TrEMBL record:
The name this protein goes by in its record: Tricarballylate utilization 4Fe-4S protein TcuB
NCBIfam families, per database record: CitB
Keywords, in A-Z order: Membrane, Transmembrane, Transmembrane helix
Organism: Paracoccus aestuarii
SUPFAM superfamilies recorded: 4Fe-4S ferredoxins (SSF54862), Respiratory nitrate reductase 1 gamma chain (SSF103501)
Domain of life of the source: Bacteria
Classification of source organism: Bacteria, Pseudomonadati, Pseudomonadota, Alphaproteobacteria, Rhodobacterales
TM stretches of this protein: 108-128, 140-162, 220-242, 257-277, 289-311, 317-338
Coiled-coil positions: none
Record-linked InterPro entries: Citrate_utilization_prot_B (IPR012830), NarG-like_sf (IPR036197)
Length: 362
């Protein structure tokens, strides 16, 4: 006698099953952007599920409040199933897909090997450079640094742009208006979807306690990263527009933005690592845990090596530290379309699409 067992559901199929149950219950309607968006539909196409998954910030409050989690026969685990659908969207829409899947599953090893290889590359460049130049340019000419880093930054951004274009089409994003951009910017800047819908925070690391820790760590990382980007941008303007070349004093814009930004990024990375180590891996995409941790470590390393380089100014440690710092920065750039760095672009785009969908629904 043989048993005719049904094949297991794919992540998208299981997400559809679980979201339809949630839509009938609606107990968690005020928790985050996912649940109001869910109520617009009675049936969910694949694009609808992709949109909901990227609106989800994995705060996990809905899971701990749900009466249909295991051992109930419905076996709902909304944070995990949306994490799988979200992860699938990042990998499926990336170019090339195989590299995205490889990084997310073997991220620590890939990022580590790339940092080591690029450190050796920059060290060899510094060793071959003739004497001359001031500050960092004593180890690498400014024009050479620009020639290396501009393509390494622009090419990944172009790949991300193509991924977001395909995402917008898949989720049915409409015409973008200024009010949609402002609303999405407000949601992203204040991390409102990490606030639990009630203002007390989320339950990421502890189901019995609401906490703002994850929201604060994310804000430190985001605003620190933007401050460091502002430091680089202001340095570029000073160099090319005003003819003021590095190194810069502590009161100059590159330092005023870069030093606090680096400190914020290190603090944010430390907070996110601590929270991730305490959180339940079964409420996320377990298979990519290593890739997510590699991304946090890489961001922290970029900031930490930058701060160390600043503190080492005028010492013999500048050369080796510069090679390591440039390697971590280039690794971050090259892996942007494939690492969890992509989540910021996708989540902002999801918030932007949701602002438009809310306008249309009115």
């Amino acid at each position: 006698m043989s048993l005719d067992l049904a094949p297991p559901l794919t992540a998208t199929e299981d997400a559809r099953r679980q979201i339809e149950i949630c839509n009938a219950c609606r107990y968690c309607e005020g928790f985050c952007s996912v649940f109001p968006a869910m109520t617009r539909n009675k049936a969910f196409a694949d694009g609808d599920l992709t949109h909901l998954a990227n609106l989800c910030h994995n705060c996990r409050g809905c899971h701990y409040a749900c009466q249909y989690t295991p051992p109930h026969e419905f076996a709902l685990n909304i944070p995990a199933v949306l994490a799988e659908v979200r992860q699938d969207s990042w990998e499926r829409l990336a170019r090339p897909q195989a590299l995205a899947r490889m990084f997310h599953e073997r991220g620590v090893a890939m990022a580590g090997l790339l940092v080591v290889a690029l450190t050796l590359f920059f060290a060899l460049i510094a060793a071959a450079r003739p004497p001359g130049g001031e500050g960092f340019y004593a180890y690498m000419a400014h024009n050479l640094m620009i020639a290396i880093f501009i393509p390494a930054f622009v090419a990944p951004l172009a790949l991300i742009g193509l991924s977001l274009r395909d995402y917008w089409r898949e989720v049915g994003g409409g015409r973008i208006r200024l009010r949609h951009l402002l609303k999405a910017g407000d949601m992203a800047g204040r991390m409102r979807n990490l606030n639990g819908g009630h203002g007390d925070g989320c339950n990421f690391e502890d189901g019995d306690r609401f906490s703002q820790k994850r929201r604060i760590a994310h804000q430190l990382m985001m605003w620190g990263f933007l401050a460091c980007f502002a430091a680089t941008s202001s340095g570029t303007i000073l160099h090319y527009v005003f003819g003021w070349h590095a190194p810069y004093p502590i009161w100059a814009p590159p330092k005023l933005f870069g030093v606090p930004g680096g400190i914020a990024m290190v603090a944010g990375a430390a907070g996110l690592i601590a929270l991730k180590l305490r959180a339940d891996p079964d409420l996320g995409a377990r298979r990519v845990w290593g890739g997510e941790m590699a991304f946090i470590l890489l961001l922290g390393a970029v900031a930490a090596t930058g701060l160390a380089l600043w503190l080492a100014t005028g010492t013999g440690a500048v050369g080796p530290l510069l090679a390591v710092h440039l390697a971590t920065v280039m690794t971050l750039f090259l892996l942007m379309p494939f690492s969890k760095m992509i989540h910021g672009f996708f989540r902002f785009t999801a918030l932007l699409a949701e602002a438009g969908k809310q306008d249309t629904a009115r």
